[in-house]
Design goal:
It is a single chain. The chain is mainly α. About 65% of the residues lie in helices and about 0% in strands. It contains nine helices and two strands; from the N terminus they run E-E-H-H-H-H-H-H-H-H-H. Helix 5 packs antiparallel against helix 6 and helix 7 runs antiparallel to helix 8.
Length: about 240
């Protein structure tokens, strides 16, 4: 089934869906990088107060730290509500896609089924993987392929298909669960990003962060390493 974009170009429903997923993941990535920047600002502000507290009365410095921590907690609470909305937007599109019936006009379905029924047992693993990966973002077709693999007793094919399918409802629940600590309580942004990558980006044939580059919060990684080595000499307040 073809989809007409606003600019008049015609793309397949799978291409349109994967583009939508990529847009939502990009928005989520920008949100997380903003959180990482705000956390670094918090660390610097707190370190500045601690380093200069000798210039204030003890109660003044303590109030400054308390006020900063209070405002930061409020920001994290608001960020949790925001990320829940982003998760819902991300999963809503996937849920709708998973409910779509098989597109019988898709010319690639019959050849794929023919390969499975005739030569799949002799197909090299990489060839089998390429066949399945070509249907990434098309859960209805993947389920049909899975049934064909099961009928042939092709466990390799079944396992590969499983890597391209997921339960959108479970993904929503799990990501919100991880976000409680990662976003709402100043936990690891990288841990949250890792769950997004594992549960949704990889099955969709993508990576998260989308450029497969550095971690969402490189400073967070560095601080965790320094803490583990006993080298963190500046109190981190809410961030440890």
């Amino acid at each position: 089934m073809a989809v007409i974009r606003s600019n008049g170009t015609k793309v397949s429903s799978t291409e349109a869906y994967r583009s939508l997923v990529q847009d939502h993941l990009s928005t989520l990535e920008l949100f997380l990088r903003k959180q990482a920047t705000e956390r670094e600002t918090y660390r610097k502000q707190r370190a500045s107060i601690v380093e200069n507290q000798n210039g204030f009365l003890p109660e003044v410095a303590e109030k400054q730290l308390t006020d900063l921590d209070s405002k930061t907690r409020q920001k994290w609470a608001a960020a949790y509500e925001e990320v829940c909305g982003l998760i819902e937007s991300l999963v809503t599109g996937s849920q709708a896609r998973y409910e779509e019936p098989l597109d019988l006009s898709d010319p690639s379905i019959i050849p794929a089924l023919t390969i499975i029924q005739t030569v799949s047992t002799a197909l090299p693993f990489e060839g089998l993987k390429r066949l399945i990966d070509s249907f990434t973002g098309n859960p209805a077709a993947l389920k049909i392929l899975n049934a064909a693999f099961e009928g042939r007793g092709m466990t390799a094919g079944v396992e590969l298909v499983k890597q391209r399918l997921y339960d959108p409802a479970f993904v929503e629940v799990r990501l919100k669960e991880v976000a409680v600590i990662s976003i709402g309580q100043g936990g690891s942004l990288n841990a949250f990003a890792g769950e997004v990558n594992r549960l949704m980006a990889i099955p969709e044939g993508m990576t998260f962060p989308l450029d497969n580059g550095e971690s969402i919060d490189p400073q967070g990684v560095l601080i965790s390493m320094r803490k583990a080595a006993g080298l963190l000499d500046t109190p981190g307040g809410l961030l440890g």
